[in-house]
Write a structure and sequence with these properties.
With 144 residues, this protein is an alpha+beta fold. It is 33% helix and 28% strand. It has a single domain, classed as Trna Endonuclease, Chain: A, domain 1, CATH 3.40.1350. Helix 1 crosses helix 2. The radius of gyration is 15 Å and the shape is globular.
């Protein structure tokens, strides 16, 4: 029985908020990734860390072309940052990962800011039912 994607996302956000509140900003991404993965596993989720992803481009195959920080229950991609401020390229990176893995939703979490609220983004791969237009990275400006 698979868990609803929105329930998984809510649990990830909840655990990330608790983690940021307890540890604060300034640690390496790997520290936040390790602890968040452990907390989610303790909740019963299957958590894969630094998952290598193969891609095919035309007739070429590239093994381990990139790595995803966390994949929760095989369906939610989580990209973790620890920078002062997120840039547009961070969300574009996650959107590309979503497209290449054919997944609908990812979370971009920046633990580097004073609060986690400003560093949390939902990135949606063409599935408008997952987020309001204000939160979508890949929104179609002419359709809203």
């Amino acid at each position: 029985m698979s868990v609803d994607l929105e329930v998984i996302a809510a649990d990830v956000v909840d655990q990330a908020l608790r983690l940021h509140r307890h540890l604060g900003p300034g640690l390496l991404e790997s520290v936040y990734e390790t602890i968040l993965a452990g907390k989610l596993a303790k909740l019963g989720y299957e958590v894969r860390r630094q998952q290598a992803i193969d891609i095919q481009y035309e007739d070429l195959q590239f093994d381990a072309a990139f790595r995803i920080d966390l994949i929760i229950d095989g369906q939610l991609l989580v990209e973790i940052k620890s920078v002062e401020r997120l840039n547009a390229v961070h969300a574009k990176q996650l959107l590309t990962y979503l497209r290449l893995t054919n997944q609908p939703l990812g979370l971009l979490i920046n633990f580097g800011g004073a609060t986690l609220k400003e560093g949390l983004q939902r990135v949606v791969n063409g599935h408008t039912s997952f987020a309001s237009s204000r939160l979508r990275v890949n929104q179609n400006l002419g359709k809203e």
